[in-house]
Structures are given as structure tokens and as C-alpha cells.
Amino acid sequence: MLERKLVESQVPLHVKSLQKTYSNGVNAVRGVDLQLEEQQVHALLGPNGAGKTTTIKSVLGFIRYEGDVKVFGQNIDRVRDRIAFVPEEKQFYDFLTPRKALKWCQKLNPHFDPSRGMEFFAHFSLPLDKKIKSFSHGMKTSLYLSLTFAQQADLYIFDEPTWGLDPIKRDDVLQMVRDRVIDGKTVLYTSHIIPEVQQIADKVSIMANGKILFTGFLDEIKERFRIVIVSPEARLDLQQYPVMAVARSRDQVSLLTDTDESFEHFNRISISEPLVPGLEEFFQVLIRGDRHVL
Amino acid sequence: MWIQIDLRSPLPAYQQIKVKIKQAILKEELRQDQTLPSIREMAQNIRVNPNTVARSYRELEAEGVIMARQGVGYIVVVNPGEIRENFLQDIREQLMIPIRQMKRSGIEEEECIEVVKKCWKESS
Amino acid sequence: MFYKEFAEARFRLLLFWGLFAIFLLVTVALRPFIGDLMGQMESELGNMPAFLKNLLGDISGISRLANDDNWYLLSQWHAKNLGQFIPLFVLVFTFPVFARETDKKTIYFLLARKNRSSVFSGKFWSGLVFVLGTLAFFSLMGPLAMKMGGYAVGFAGTMPFLFQQMVSGFFLYTLFTLFSIVLGDPVKAVIAGIVVVLGTPFFSMIPNLGFLNVYNYITGIHPLGGKGVDIWYSLGLGASGAFLLWLDWKLFARKEF
User: Fold this and answer.
1) Which H or E run includes A84?
2) Is A88 on the interface with C (CB under 8 A)?
């Protein structure tokens, strides 16, 4: 049974005040907080260039950063055998074959289970003794995922895992992520594909321009927020009736409200029916709204 | 067991699952003492996170509709008659939205009932 | 890590093992011909008028080549056919070790699962073992092959060469690893290496900078002149290698991927 325990012990990932400015001056991450809970899929959703990959790279120690990152309560270098990462590129060693890769991974990692690796290979119909050099992108992804899942890690981090895959494979991958949750594992998943996040996430953090605009449970969005459309000329008394985001377009202004008072107030002057936002609408208003921060 | 989750619906996924399960019990597609699909199966079939299914199951258990039995899974513990009122409560909540809409547009109660009657006739 | 590093380097290693084996075979096989040729030249020289002999300068080498198998081994194998190719071998082996993984992004797999010092150690030390192992093997095969060919040689003469080859191998490896790490791209790394390999001999032409021409040390000029191991140069080169090793580690530890 899956029960959400109150985690006093090790939190799979805790990120506090993460900042990263590259040497070319690009301020990619501008103060990010993130906390994962065990046995959950936490999606980091945002447009390209939002800073998702930079966040992941900082967490994994690939780049230097400011801020605090703790994995299972410790410095990541001490718990690397408990984490697994699948990068966007999914490049593996060309000169190995799946069979040899299995042998090598076993030496590399204590919890690695080669028989599970074989099961995944069979599931993806990967040729065991062919050099990886000859694999298509889809096959390389399948291989990388197989080796990753066979690792029996406790925290999985995926960066755009379904990119470049056909719909059947994409579905497969999502199911494998769900299976990890059933096994009691934790997943951090970056994506810019909203329907996918809806199919797989418990919690979602929406990121844009280096900042996280919202973190919450997926279900919570429909229960907590409403989108109210008002005319561009309408007076917005946001001091008294604060809203989560204001997104302006030529002929309407969308307000993302999360309190009853603000909702009631703006609904009275709205020019169309209020919306219960799905993730898509919520995302749109939030992201566009960020450009008009008042 | 197949449930179509409507991502556009104002109801969160876990609520939709609950409603659909209650519906199935009402229609006797799910009988008393029958076992529900496992969380894993359900999550795979309807394509949602297992925790979402778990939440539905948990809440249904709290409402007394299903019960977890060790080694077996979740089983239905009510009959159609017992679930009726519970189901109607859920429907009432769903109906609030179009009814509010009509009220705001100035539709009177009698007109509203006419609309409901028409829908009832037209639906398959 | 050895397993994967070997699989990755297999082609270039086998290439040089093959080349060195062929060079060695040829060196041993040519002994009788060189011996005869030198012998003929010796008698020709004996018949030369004195003033021509003076012009030719020191011709004792020819006599030695004709008659001394050990000298043949040292001057033709260690100082020439093996020695001259050591920098090229180390370069070709070393340049992709870090650069290729960085360029192709396969290094993410390692870096996510192991910490920096593990990744560095695994790659660095396995590479060094392959380099030094290869050099030691072919160095010792020199006298061994000659013995098998029936020639009168001992291992003692090879020892100082072997020592200097080990120190050279270490130094060159740490230097080319530096390029491999810093430049992050196999093409740039090999170009930088080629510049070094081809440019080093030119130091001999610059007054006072001749000592920077490591070829003299690698090919064993000192032991060839009968003076054994060049202690000071060995210490200097070894210390430079150690410094480069430290630098390699520091740069890798700080590198952003």
C-alpha cells in the first residue's frame, strides 16, 4: 500500500536557495527551493531555457553553484550509489554491447541487478551482442533506461526522458516510472510536456526564467485555483484582492485566483465563465503572468 | 477495469476515479465482495500516478465504500442501495457548476428543471 | 574501471602493440645485415688515407655496431626504434581518455554515480598502467628478442633505459592528460599534443634551453654514453610529472560538465 508518510528521517532531496550564474554571465537559476518526498514523482515543469537542466546539474554536482543541496540528508558524494540519473542526451559507450554494459555496470555499482537488466533488455527487444554504436536513438534510450532501472537506486532523476521516443515507447517509459513509485522509490522528472506530467506526477514545480513559480500537488491545482477573465480596461485592485498571476493579452486579462475573496470579487466583473484550470491553463497563465510581474 | 480520466474536467483525477468506482458499484459492474484492480494495474490502465489511485482507494475506504484485505487487495463492501446516497452527493457537487452558471445568466428555477428534463430525454 | 577503459582504448593499444612488435622483429632480423654492412665499412675505412679519416670524425660507432650485439640493442632499439616513438604512442593513447568522454557526454553516466575522485582515479591510473605496462614490456622484450635470436646480450644494459622510459612515460602521460582534461575535445587535445611532440626537438636549437628537449632523455642519451641513469634529469622530470598529476586532478575536480 502506498501511504504518504510524514518524513522526519531522510528527505530524498532538499534544495535551498540554489543559484547559478554561468561564466558567460547567464543567470540560469535565481534562487530555487525544492523538497522531494519519498515515494513520489516530482515533476519540474517549464519551457526550454527555464533553468531545469541547470538545476539538475547543480544537484548532481556537475557544475558549481551557490546554495545548499542535500540528498537523503547528506552531501551527494556520500550517497551516489543510491541515485541514478538519465540525462537528456542518453549517450552511452559506443564500443560496448548491452551484455558487456551489464557486466561493467555490475562492477561499478553495488546494488546493480543484472537479471533485472536482462529483463528490461528483453522487454525493449535490444540485441544483446550488438555494439551500441549501431543503435538508433530510441534503442539508446531503452538501453540507458534499462541500465538505470537495474541499478535499484532510491532516487531517480530524469531529464526529459521521453524526448525523441515514439508514443508506444513513451508510454512504456511512463509506466516504468510509475513502477518505481510502486517499489517505494522517488523520482525527479524534468519535462516541458504537460500531458505527460499529468499522467505521471504527484507534485509539480513550475519553473521559468530561473525561478520556481509554484510547487504543489497536481490534484491541488483544480481544487485551489480558478481562472477569471476580465476586460483589459477593468480596474484591478490587487492590493486588496491579491491573485497568483495576471496574464494580459490583447483582448482579455486572465487572473489566477487562489482565495475565495479574490475569486468572488473578480468573478463579479468577469467577462466570461470562470475556469477550473487544468495543468495546461494553469501553466499558461502562470508563465505568461510572470512576464507582467507587478 | 477501464476508467477514462477527463483531464479537462474540473474534478481532480482522484475524485474522478472515486466517482467512477461508485458508478460501477451502482450499475453492479462491481459487486459486493469483489476485488478492485491493484493500484499498480489501475495506475497503468488509466495512466495516472499510483499515488493518485492510492488516494482514491484510501478515501473510498474512509467513506466505507471499500476495504483493504490483507493479501487480497481492496474489496467492495457496499451494495448498490448503500452507495446510492453517497453517489448522489458527488453528483450534486458536479451539478453545482452548470447550475451556478445558469443562475448567473438569469435563468429561473423552472427553466433549469426543463433543461434537466430535456437532457434526461436526449441522453442515451 | 579497467575493463571499460581497456575496451575503449583497445584499438589504439593494439595498433601500437602491433607496430612495436613489428619494429622489434625488424630490428632483430636486420642484425646480421647491419653487422655485415658495418664490417665492410670498417675494412673500407681501414684502407682510407688518414686525412679522410679525420674528416669523418669519430667512427668508433661503426666498429661497435659491427661487433657489439649489446650496443646494437641499445642504440637501435632503445634509442631509436622504440625510443623515438614513445612520445607519439603516449599521445595517441592519452589524448582521448578524458576528452572523448567529455565531448560525447558519456561521462555523465560516471559522474552521476561516482564522485570526482573515483572517476579521475579510475581513468587516470588505469591509463597510466596501460602506458607504463606497454613501455616496460617492449623495453624488456628488446634484450629478450635479441637473446631468442641467438645474440649475446644481457638485461643489465637495458635497465637504465627502462628506468628513463618509465619516468618519460609518466611525464608525457600527465602532460597529455592535461590537454585532454582542459581542452575537453579530442581534436584540440591531439593538436596540442602534436605541437608538443613535433616542437620539442627545436629546443635544442635555442641556447640554454636545450634541456627542454626531452627527446634526449627519452631516447637515453645519458645511458647510451655509458653514464647510466641521468639522475638529476630523472628527478626533474619526475617532479614535473608529479606536479602535472596534481594539476590534472585539481582541474578535473573543478571542471564543469
Assistant:
1) strand A83-86
2) no
The tens digit of pLDDT for each residue in C97-139 reads 999 999 999 999 999 999 999 999 999 999 999 999 999 999 9
> DSSP secondary structure string, A160-189?
STTTT--HHHHHHHHHHHHHHHHTT-EEEE
Distance from CA of B6 to the nearest CA of A (A): 10
Candidates A63, A85, A107; nearest CB to C112: A85
Name the amino acid, one letter, at A8: E
Is the ipTM here above 0.95?
A: no
* Domain identity same for A130 and A188: yes
Q: Does the beta carbon of C121 lie under 8 angstroms from any beta carbon of chain A?
A: no
pLDDT tens profile B27-51:
888 889 999 999 988 988 888 889 9
Supply the pTM of this predicted model.
0.85
The verdict on A116 and A180 lying in the same domain is yes
Q: Please state, in angstroms and rounded to a whole number, the distance separating the CA atoms of residues A131 and A127.
A: 9
Cα C59 from Cα C38, distance rounded (Å) = 11
CATH class of the domain at B13-122: mainly alpha
Is A5 inside any structural domain? no
A126/A138 Cα distance (integer angstroms):
10
Cβ within 8 Å of residue C7, ≥6 positions away: A93, A95, A96, A100
